[in-house]
Q: What sequence folds into this?
């Protein structure tokens, strides 16, 4: 007798779409170091470093509306905060100080972002289980290309895409390119608005990595509807991700 196995009886292939920044590699460390360096420059110029930092964080969120996720935004915000602080304290901004602040802020985009602990092992374990992996990042294209290259993780992904925005349509097209059904696809990321919400809208399941998120995404006003799980590290991904 010949056993005929219908396609529905075959084990389904599971796909996992990963975010990059602060999911697989950490940018938090780079921003902290750059901000601390700029803050010291402000203090050395005789201004209040803490006041500068408060202004900088507010201005940087406001600047998203006009500058988006360009690499010019953070350095510009740092300089604007210094200039605004000078105006508030009736001091003249010194151009040399502005340039120093700008250079310190730019280091975020010039230095390599360190990999999150266990990133490579977590991805390798998933692949060993037959999962198909994709990397979907947003942000400045050139910088994301460099971060992907320096991560050394490219060989683990079947699909890599850098996009301006992770819409449900973009996520669905990545899942399609992975060759898996949406009901067998998962999104893994640290951002509720950029990763979780569009993925759940697209019909995927999601894992929220409870890592660094910056002020712009921290307003807490998002309603998350759909099947999702929170994890504090990538280590337990293998036991959470499963087929239909
Ligand atoms: Mg992220």
A:
């Amino acid at each position: 007798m010949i056993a005929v196995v219908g396609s529905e009886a075959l084990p389904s292939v599971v796909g996992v779409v990963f975010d990059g920044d602060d999911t697989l590699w950490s940018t938090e460390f780079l921003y902290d170091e750059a901000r601390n360096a700029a803050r010291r420059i402000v203090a050395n110029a005789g201004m209040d470093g803490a006041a500068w930092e408060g202004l900088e964080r507010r201005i940087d969120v406001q600047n998203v509306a006009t500058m988006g996720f360009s690499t010019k935004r953070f350095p510009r915000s740092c300089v604007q905060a210094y200039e605004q602080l000078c105006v508030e304290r009736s001091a003249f901004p010194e151009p040399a100080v502005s340039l120093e602040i700008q250079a310190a802020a730019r280091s975020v985009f010039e230095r390599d972002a360190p990999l999150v602990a266990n990133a490579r092992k977590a991805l390798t374990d998933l692949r060993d289980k037959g999962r198909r992996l994709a990397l979907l990042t947003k942000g400045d294209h050139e910088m994301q290309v460099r971060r992907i290259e320096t991560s050394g993780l490219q060989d683990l992904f079947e699909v890599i895409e850098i996009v301006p925005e992770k819409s449900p349509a973009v996520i669905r097209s990545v899942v399609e390119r992975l060759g898996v059904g949406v009901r067998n696809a998962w999104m893994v990321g640290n951002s509720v608005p950029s990763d979780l919400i569009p993925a759940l809208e697209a019909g995927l399941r999601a894992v929220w990595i409870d890592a660094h998120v910056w002020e712009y995404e921290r307003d807490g006003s998002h309603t998350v509807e759909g099947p999702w799980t929170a994890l504090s590290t990538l280590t337990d991904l293998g036991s959470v991700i499963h087929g239909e």
Residues 19, 21-23, 189-191 surround magnesium ion (CB under 6 Å). DSSP finds nine helices and six strands in the chain. The first strand starts at residue 15 and ends at 18. Confidence is low (pLDDT under 50) at residues 1-11.
